[in-house]
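Worked Example 4.2. Consider the chain below.
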Amino acid sequence: MKKIFVPVTVILVAILIGVMAYPSMHQEVPIHWSSGEADLFVSKGLAILILPILMLVSSLSIWLTNKYQGGKDNKKTINKTHNLSLVILFFVHLMILSFGLDVNLDNNFYVGIIVGIITVAVANPMQKTKPNAVYGLRTPWTLKDEKVWRKSNRFSGKLLFIVGLLIIGLSFVYPEFTTSVILILLVGALVISVIVSFGIYKKLSNSKA
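Applying the procedure from the previous section yields the following structure tokens:
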């Protein structure tokens, strides 16, 4: 599950953002330029699918490669490289969508990109961090039990990774709503994380009783 979380999440979020952008996009979307002029257009239906399909095909290729070839160290290197390439393709996908929307990239857009990148960067190590006084989902019950901490922060880290991608994606598609998107998604992630964390605590407490 850990190995496929990043590819599955990136592909699903890319599809979701594409579906959300679709109704507002032009019928034809430029995907190639020559001398500063667009010279290749595709339908908007194809524009929202090109990169997700490419991501899916590359992910399946990597999965087959890992299954039949290479040792453990090779697999780690391949997976990290592939995850990075997926993130790059995700940004290219967002750029294609923005071309189809004639999006004006103002200050809100850049704020959204920065906040989204920071959220994604914070999310990954959060899944592996140990109880501490500074970093992680710190509640009375997570600090009380290391197992609750571990499960809660693993969930919260995955949720924040998804939220970070959504913030980045929606900043491309709806830059005028970036501030509201950031507040709603981050506050929502915090509330959901606390509720799920408390549920984990109660479940583990009941199992010990």
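The two ends are 30 Å apart (CA to CA). The chain has a mean pLDDT of 86. Compare this with Example 4.1 before moving on.
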